[in-house]
Amino acid sequence: MSVHCSSSLPERHAIPCPQNSFSRRRFLRSAALLGAVAGLPSMVPSSVLGAAGRPAPSNRITVGCIGLGGMGNGNLGGFLGDPRCQVLAINDVDRNACESACKRVNTQYNNQDCAGYKDFRELVARDDIDVVSMATPDHWHAITAIASLRAGKDVYGEKPFSHDLREGRAMVTAVAQYGRVWQTGSWQRSSGDFRFACELVRNGRIGKVHTVEVGLPTGGPGGDAPFTDPPPQLDYDFWCGPSPWAPYSKDRTHWNWRWQMDYGGGQLMDWIGHHGDIAQWGLGTEYTGPVEVNPIYAEFPKTGIWDAATRYRIECTYANGAKMILQNAEGQHRMGAKWIGTDGWVWVDRGGFETSPKSLVKDKIQPGEINLYHSTNHISNFLDCVKSRRLTITPAEVAHRSASVGHLCVIAMSLGRKFRWNPETEEVIGDSSATALLGRAKRGPWSIV
Amino acid sequence: MNLDVIQTASSPFPSPPQRGRGCRRQERGWLMALIPVEGFWRLSRHKTMKAFALVAILGLALGSLPVSGQPASGDPYEGLAKFKFGESRVPLATIEEQIRKSSPAEYKVIETKLLTVLKAPETPKDAKRYICRWLAVVGSPDCVPAVAPLLTDDDLSHLARMALEPMASPAAGAALRDALPKVHGRLLAGLIGSIGVRRDPEAVSALAGAAKDDDPVVASAALLALGAIGTESAAQTLAGLQVAPALSRAQARARITAAWHLRNAGANPQAASIYRDLMQPAQPQFIRIAALKGLIEALAQAEAVKLVTEMVQGEDAAMREATAVAYAMSTDAALQSAVASALPSMKSSGQLILLGVLSDLPDVAARPAVLSLVEKGADPAVQAAAIVCLGRHGEAADVPMLVRLAGTAPGPVGEAAHKTLDRLGKPGVDDVLIGLIGSPDATDRATVLGVLASRHTAAALPTLVRLVGGTDAGLAVEAAKALGVMGQSAQLAALTATIVGTQNAQLRTACEEAGRAICTRAQDKTAAAEVVLAALGQAQQPPARAALLRLLGYTAGAAPLTAVVKAMGDSDAEVRQAAFRALVGWPDATAVPHLVEVARRAPDSADAIVALRDGCLRLAAMEEVPMAERLSAYRSVLEVARRPEEKRQAVSGLAEMPSFGSLDLLKGCGQDAALKNEAIPAAIRVARELGTVNYTRAVAALQELKGMTDQEDLRKKADDAIKSLQNAGQTADGSILAWMVSGPFKSEGKTWKELFDIEFEPEKAGSKADWRPAGQGTVSKTGLVDLNKTMAGDERVAYLKTQITSERDQPAQLEIGSDDGVKVWLNGKVVDASNVIRPLTPGDDKVKVTLSRGVNRLLLKVIQGGGEWSACCRVRAPDGAPLDGVTVGVGEE
Fold first, then answer.
1. Is B794 helix (H, G, I), strand (E, B) or coil?
2. What is the pLDDT of residue B73?
3. From B156, which residue of chain A is nearest by alpha-carbon distance?
4. Does any CB of chain A come closer than 8 Å to the CB of residue B425?
5. What's A145-204 look like in SS3?
6. Does domain A191-372+397-436 have CATH number 1.10.3210.10?
7. Residue A232 Cα, gap to closest chain B Cα (Å)
8. Whole-angstrom Cα distance, residue B538 to residue B268?
């Protein structure tokens, strides 16, 4: 079904929390007009009037937030903290999360204007919302994103970019078709150490790169909490959405969804949009991908409902022979990305940056060399690009390619064998089972077509 | 280890080099409380390979092990045939593993087995769900007849589509189409979605019917599926459908998708026709934007250039932006260049947006047009944007013009020129800049030197060195400034030589500042000192010697310090003052004795105050200075200082440095009437922090401090500290924080298992083992003792001990976790012995004990096989509830 058409909904699902669902922009314009004619009414909050260096309301970027868990709330803080923005609406299938976020927005703006929705389609249908911040579980990424893009919204979407490869390509296509601005929450790109590490590698400071080791967290088995009725504040069927229905357990939903392949992708997919993405950036393979994916080992839980691989090592070979080795970080294998070349290596992680030779740490990238995209604030970069219509530091195609590495690894682990991949056509070469796993059928009525 | 999580079946992959883990789910709550979330997985995952290996061996020895009531061996398909949600997933996981171990040629056997279970009437639906998933991987067209009937089942339709949707076989497509009239609502919408994914052209007619469905959810899905099919037939069908207003947006979106497919298939005229239709004002703006973008891509080049040029300077800002995005994303280089060449004749609104986009498109031939806008300079905003854009498209030949603008143009234009000069990366740019150093225009020269510094142009260094020593003082000053930004140790000698030789104070200062920056950056400060000392040996004039002495303060080593100290006796006041300043700012504690000597020689002088305050006390507060040297510096200040101000500052610093050395000094200050008001509270604070390190000594100090003051509030503070220390050895939930540690102990050739029963010194009667406090780096705030922090290595043991003081005889429970094994003594009696390899799970061992009134001595022997090495212990009531009347401390040592 269409995921965008609010009028197709049998009923409105606005959650009863302090809100107004009429066009905020219309209200703002009315207020401004009123001010011009009759003097400013004293009860209009200063935040509405563009005080304290904020742009005038009509020039603000209006924001709707879909998914208000950990990252959603973090990103909400980023948008609330940027004076160029005005958050207008919140969506979450968990009423508590929705109400809490609405309250936070209203407190920030000192009004009661934030609208809360259980059904994201109602938020997306609002023509007065310019951008959407999307931070749902992975299985909802593509559907909410595509609906938003097809409604003319620019999107700040959390990583991993997509839940499977076919979704990712559909999202990239929607961004291109509708000419929207996309930023993926791979915020490490907006951190100086990561950019500099990639610049050193891209500019040949360690010679010809033959290997990049990507250290990711180790997963764990679990998910053995009993099946129960879902809590009353959660619309669990909606939460399952496009993924297969299964009985509710507290181990299935909030946070824990990451460890189940129907909703997340385990530690590997959680981090592929960080260290995997940085590894691609350094390799300069942001617009392509590996040509062969080889699972060296993988361990899967046998009990509980968590089924994502917990320990893994996969080798991806690129067209130039370079290998990206993705492995859960244990023992000598550190978290982060470590590029190894003929003349040295560079390792970077959050709070860690080492090189060989050591002098590279103080090196300077010259103007004539590859100077990578410079951003110091991920959300701010997104908002800049919403204004300028230029590419963000993590645009859709780049994010899709990073996520693709993870998806290919997941497929290889699932099949227990290596396969070849054509990154240009995005087709598996000679393995129909791997091809079948590039996408997955959605539970009705949800679809990405 | 809990058997629920053991992987009994062999992995399809080569054995991993590391270990898996086992961790009881229900206990993870406490574990998570103990270990920061980020560290949790790392810690808990580390151990298990050996654990798995051990249990696998046990499994082999004992035959099949019970795993959640299911046999670990046997036919997993039998288990599958009975599977319901909530039951063991082991049979399913076993089949998944079989699939992973099988080649595609072997899938047929698995498919046959799966279909047998699928067709069995008694097979639960939950089992069928899983079978359908796997059929997506191992299934062939043979499975379609068995799966197709499930498409109409409310519970299984989705899963049946999971099998059929990715299947290339026409039979799968037919099954999906055939099911269309048999379902409705969300099942029908789901079916339509799968048909859309397959882009099944044979379904166009059926979808056209579905698009008229009363259910808007179904109708919308059908419209979008038609768009996804994207053939001419589908596109025509879509265009001809009369839909309700509520579905008009869905129809428009579907047509955008159809046009996209048509264009990708080369049917550009048909695509363009759709896009033009959708650009009508009646459409929502976002549809018009998408249509415009698509149209630009679908048109022949000449038409596209005309359209882009027209739209990018149109009145509608959103359409302007859409045009720019389409332009940026275009793969037609000729189109991009043609539009760029039209820049000079566009309106400024279009120029501004295109210039921004062109900054991201280095391959577009835009330089002539951009240059034209720079030179025209009619609109400062456009000119500035063009200059920024030139940072991507400009060449070396543009440098002189940019230098001129950077030096002369006001506001954003000048700033943009500076920015562009900083980033311009084309070949030859640096050469032109270096050449411009000789420009007759002073402004140009200054600009160029600044730019070269900003660009860190190494090729300019020889020129800069030459200029520093040249005859043009103004240029020399600018060159020195540039060297300050980008110079390295190799250029230091040129700067010091100029300092020695010049009579120009401004130049000397510039060289000194540049030299300071280079010395600060230098990796080898001793080598830098040699350069400066060599110049000092040549310098005759006091100003030069003073400057060089100040520079020495940014180097390191004994020789420069000696030179500085010697110069403090120089006959020239300026030199003496410079030397003193260098000494006061010396970077390490080797200067302390000399600073103290200054204060000792003239204790009432201003120099004494500076030496103590800016020299000694500054160094004493530096965390990178060794603790003993810091203490020594504080002690010296307390001895030498005449004024209470410096002494008070020393007291304040000592309060931030908890150690028994600090405590002793603070106690001494507590006897000084002028300092006691600061010293005693500081000492109480330090003693309180040391309580978990040495309870007895800390309490004794607190008692002593209490006796040193008559102030009730201080006495109460001391009492409070003593009281809090009595239980500082445990967390609120009873996890022990205060430990003494001894080890590591090894025995050549003995394995971890054998080490368990070897009696090392700490467990011997009358032990004389060397015990030391387990510091904060080893014990986390939640009570996790990480022995790897100080004793890393395999096949070894360590001991932990503490004292539990109970107000009465009472039963208790020790909840112990260890990685790996552990043996526990309470009051000399073994109460727990687990000679195992395991990851740390708090409370793995729960031991009922009786605590005697008074002191109870607890001793743990923690075994290390390899990997992580840690332990924890919590004291609770026998039922796991909190336990009253108990304090924990390490005792007398």
1. coil
2. 54
3. A244
4. yes
5. HHHHHCCCCEEEECCCCCCCHHHHHHHHHHHHHHCCCEEECCHHHHCHHHHHHHHHHHCC
6. no
7. 22
8. 81
| Burial of B300 per CB tally in 10 Å (0-12, 13-18, 19+) | exposed
Give the Å distances, CA to CA, from A166 to A394, B428, B873: 19, 46, 50
Token couple for B198: 């397959």
Domain range summary for chain A, segments of one domain joined by +? 6-188, 191-372+397-436
Cβ <8 Å between B45 and A446: no
**What's the pLDDT tens digit per position in B135-149?**
999 999 999 999 999
Q: Which residues in A lie closer than 8 A to residue B227 (C-beta atoms)?
A: 449
DSSP string covering A333-376, please? --SEEEEEETTEEEEEETTEEEEESGGGGG----TTS------S
Which positions 275-334 of A are in contact with B (Cβ < 8 Å)? Answer: 295-305, 307, 310-311, 313, 328-331
Position B67 pLDDT exceeds 70: no
Residues of A in contact with B166 (CB under 8 A): 435-439, 441
Q: Give the Cα separation of B416 and B449 in Å (integer).
A: 17
ipTM given for this complex: 0.89
- A7 touches B: beta carbon within 8 Å: yes
pTM listed for this prediction: 0.73
List Cα–Cα distances, B471 to A220, B507, B509, in angstroms.
Answer: 72, 11, 17
Mean pLDDT of A370-379: 95
Q: What is the full DSSP assignment across B268-315? A: HHHHHHHHHHHTSTTS-HHHHHHHHHHHHHHS-HHHHHHHHHHHTTSS
Q: Which of B814, B888, B800 is nearest to B844 (CA)?
A: B814
The Cα of A367 is separated from the nearest Cα of chain B by a number of Å equal to 5
Q: Which two tokens stand for residue B42?
A: 């790392």
Residue B483 has pLDDT above 80, yes or no: yes
Who among B5, B28, B216 is closest to A303 (CB)? B5
**If you average pLDDT over residues A428-432, what whole number do you get?**
97
State the pLDDT confidence band at B63, using cuts at 50, 70 and 90: very low
What percent of chain A is predicted at pLDDT more than 70?
88
**Burial grade of B427 (CB within 10 A; 0-12, 13-18, 19 or more):** exposed
Model pLDDT for residues B316-342, shown as the tens digit of each residue: 888 888 899 889 888 888 999 999 999
* A446 chain-B contacts, CB cut-off 8 A: 190, 193
B734 vs A162, higher pLDDT: A162
Is residue A358 within 8 angstroms of chain B, CB to CB? no
Dihedral of alpha carbons B309, B315, B317, B322, sign? negative
H helices of B491-557, where?
492-501, 505-521, 525-538, 542-552
**pLDDT one-digit tens code per residue, A275-325:** 999 999 999 999 999 999 999 999 999 889 999 999 999 999 999 999 999
> Using CA atoms, how far apart are residues A382 and A391, in angstroms rounded to an integer?
9
Q: Which residues contact B26 (CB under 8 A, 6 or more apart)?
A: none
Q: Between 3.40.50.720, 1.10.260.40, 3.30.450.280, 3.40.50.2300, what CATH number should domain A6-188 receive?
A: 3.40.50.720
Angstrom distance (rounded) from CA A66 to CA A98 = 9
Q: Please count the CA atoms within 13 angstroms of the CA of B222 that sit on its side-chain side.
A: 28
Q: How far is CA A134 from CA A86, A150, A153, B31, B471, in A?
A: 16, 14, 11, 32, 64
CB B103 to CB A417 under 8 A?
yes
What does the block give as tokens for B173? 């497509």
